[in-house]
Design a protein that fits this description.
The complex is a heterodimer of chains A (224) and B (130). Chain A is 30% helix and 43% strand. Chain A is an alpha+beta fold. In chain A, helix 1 (6-32) runs antiparallel to helix 4. Chain B has strands at residues 4-10, 14-16, 19-22, 27-36, 44-55, 61-71, 80-87, 95-96, 100-111, 118-126. The chains are: A alpha+beta (224), B mainly beta (130). Chains A and B meet through strand 5, strand 6 and strand 11 of A and loops of B.
Chain lengths: 224, 130
């Protein structure tokens, strides 16, 4: 399963839009009573308006508006990386892997603008996700461990229309564990692409790897 | 809980580091000797092969198979031996991680009416040899 980490950023934009709109409605309703003061006698009187409006509730609502705008701005900034690079093309040597198996990865990515790259790296990670009840709340804890990393590119400039590309072999550890998913506990493997850009938000992509309960070179039931 | 001593022995698997190791998909064959220190009225003596998780998360568990080894009680000074024979699935393997551990057990239960059951857990390791 492929997951470009922009999904969370788009959700952030949506949330910020909803939040800002909601707060704006409150502000308009709150200030509605004071608009006649703003245009007293047909003249624009901001001083009279500000003197009439209760400051504490107004500033409180303004704070919430600023929070919504900040979330929206941050989300848009994170999404702006799509202006710089196209989605990465990651090709793997398989869809399912055995424990201890080598994963061949080839990578290509087109640049849509001139950009300065700090690094492009492929990572093989193992993630434990656990869920538990704490009182009436459900908590989720995650522990992610980088098993192996491969540098595709160090600091380098890319012109618009050019492609970054590379290949890597990452190996699942032979003393490792297969993918495990239960109601409250999961162990998953991921291939991650990390691109750090100067002056732009970073590009991140991850793809979940299905690791079967079999040793590389062994039988499906684990026996040799 | 009834005062009973349990002694589990295996005829398959390999003993290593204080635990019996089994390959995924292999047979778990052995016997359990029950040595009661008092008369025990029990409805049944059961053996169950199962795994469960331990660690920070709430417990997940699964019973692979359960068998009734015998029915009826135990008498003081009369140890009894019962055999069991299970087949392990291919997964999950035993695992010790940061937040999550997966633990396999052979669980012997004395089903005691109107009282807490007497339970003995024999932990095993399920993992391929590597």
């Amino acid at each position: 399963m492929r997951r470009q980490l922009g999904c969370g950023r788009m959700a952030g934009c949506g949330f910020a839009l909803f939040w800002t709109a909601f707060v704006l409605i409150f502000i308009v309703v709150f200030l509605g009573d004071y608009f006649p003061v703003l245009f007293e006698d047909g003249q624009f009187r901001p001083g009279g308006f500000l003197a009439a409006v209760p400051m504490f509730p107004f500033l409180f609502l303004l704070l919430f508006l600023l929070i919504g705008l900040a979330i929206g701005a941050w989300s848009l900034w994170q999404l702006s990386v799509a202006l710089v690079v196209a989605p990465a093309e990651l090709t793997l040597s398989g869809t399912c892997f055995a424990v201890g198996e080598a994963i061949q990865v080839s990578y290509r990515q087109q640049f849509r603008r001139d950009a300065q790259v700090e690094r492009i790296e492929l990572l093989l990670t193992k993630k434990e996700t656990v869920r538990y009840q704490r009182g009436t709340e459900t908590e989720t804890d995650i522990h992610e461990e980088v098993i192996e990393r491969h540098m595709i590119s160090g600091p380098q400039s890319f012109r618009s229309g050019k492609r970054a590309e590379g290949a890597a072999t990452l190996r699942l550890p032979r003393d490792g564990m297969h993918t495990f998913k239960a109601s409250n506990n999961k162990l998953q493997w991921f291939l991650k692409l990390e691109m750090d850009l100067q002056k732009w938000a970073d590009y991140r992509e991850e793809r979940e790897l299905e690791v079967r309960p079999v040793l590389a070179g062994g039988r499906e039931d684990g026996r040799r | 809980m009834a005062d009973v001593e349990f002694q589990v022995s295996f005829t398959t698997g390999v003993r290593e580091g204080g635990f019996q190791h089994f390959e995924p998909g292999s047979a778990v064959i052995g016997s359990v000797q029950l040595d009661p220190k008092e008369n025990v009225k029990s409805r049944a003596i059961r053996a169950r092969l199962s795994w469960h998780t331990e660690g920070r998360g709430d417990t997940d568990s699964k019973t692979i198979e359960e068998r009734v080894l015998a029915q009826g009680g135990l008498m003081t000074g009369l140890p009894q031996r019962f055999t069991f024979d299970f087949r392990l699935p291919g997964e999950p393997w035993s695992y010790a991680g940061h937040y999550l551990n997966i633990i396999w057990s052979l669980v012997i239960t004395l089903d005691v009416p109107l009282a807490r059951d007497t339970v003995h857990r024999e932990r095993i390791i399920v993992a391929p040899r590597r």
